[in-house]
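Run Acyl-CoA synthetase through structure prediction, thanks.
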Amino acid sequence: MGTLGFWRLAQADPGWIAAVDPDGTEHRAGDLLARANRLTHGLRALGLRAGDGLCGLVPNGSDGLVLYLAALQAGWYYTPINWHLTGPEIAYILADSEAKAFVTHPRYAAEATRAAEAVAPERRFAVADLPGFRPLDELTEGQPDTMPADRTAGATMHYTSGTTGRPKGVRRPLTGLDPDDGAELMTFLLALFGVTPGRPNAHLVTSPSYHTAVSQFGGTALHMGHTLVYMDRWDAEEMLRLCERHRVTSSHLVPTHFKRLLALPEEVRGKYDLSSLKWMIHAAAPCPVPVKQDMLRWWGDVVYEYYAATEGGGTLATPGDWKAHPGTVGNAWPITELLIADDSGEPVPAGTPGTIYMKMMGASFEYKGDPAKTEANRLKDFFTVGDIGYLDEDGFLFLCDRKADMIISGGANIYPAEIENEIMVHPKVADVAVFGIPDEEWGEQIKAVVEPAPGAAPGPELAAEILASLEGRLARMKWPRTVDFIDEMPREPNGKLLKRKLRAPYWEGRDRAI
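Sure, done. The structure for Acyl-CoA synthetase is below.
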């Protein structure tokens, strides 16, 4: 141990440009280090101790990065909150994570204010003036720039939606390591992809930092000495411009990005110098084989794919692996074991689909406050997120289906149960099923099928009324795009909904049911 980790690198070279905000503002490592140190001292003065929780509702950029760096050197759990959520959804995470401080941005003033009750007034902060919140400067003013004493590695605690609707925090035991040593261990992940430390390297942050993988890959690149270049809202041509301008070497993408990039006119695609690209990594949703082939033809052998879970463990497909096994999401990381099992928990032979189980050496986790859910997804010391797939003879994993229900739209996991729970309370709804249907741009879009209550007339007016009832209760990204009506929901005698029966007509003629 001893050469990597942001805090070490920033002390050795304070002039290195460590981050570039979406508006182009550059931040030197020494300045970010000083801000993170002042914040650590300020929050400790407020009473935060190792093991406590800190939540941030902030856009992509240096403000969120400073929260992350403070938490990871003070032994706190940092939870970046999804900024599409509504006030009650944010309040639930603040309460569930036992946040001892909450930092927000005026951009999210309306929903942050609705959620604020969950945190004591003296523990609510905003990065600029916002009524009901203390200015963050008030907390850090007069605090020293020097490294705090008793530094110990913290962790991010991301919330992953549960099939029961309420998201769960994935909490790992703290290691007690020196923060830089802990950060250096994290770099193992990017090293798997062949990513090398040092400068000049730049990592483009294309997606919201509240996603586990986005903060993990960005944070790890920073700990390797790479510059983080942040996008605020993703745009295909803007991404190409930033890649050329900052000589980007790596990024983390989803197949929806590829679809948008390939849709650009040929002259726009050819206008930018992309020769710096080395490790363009994608995941989060299955990538259609022709799309991936087009990307490899355009960018060359720099497109890497993986499959993983917030809970830990995963697979990796190098460009060479994928060309030899088109459609694969890769084989197991050296520290991961894969197991494909049938419904009784018995392993299945190569080529046979089953539930995908993983385990990662030395990694344990729990769903915070939910031992039953933590245990429910286990098979001995393996866990599953409920995806279905198979291994070929060479040990390469192929996904066949997300556990029947989960919808993946634009790389985001959306859980139907949560949406169904909200629609069911409508007085004119007798029954509802929500599932994903094919969408050329997003991968899947959300469809709701409703059985109207007796006396309620099905039709566009009722559909509009049902959707309007979700306002303020459910993030818009979770709203069904369309609502269809059915006389009677297909259910088994035991009451179990036959969702596959409802989904099947929409997926006819598709070679994969994802």
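The mean pLDDT is 90.
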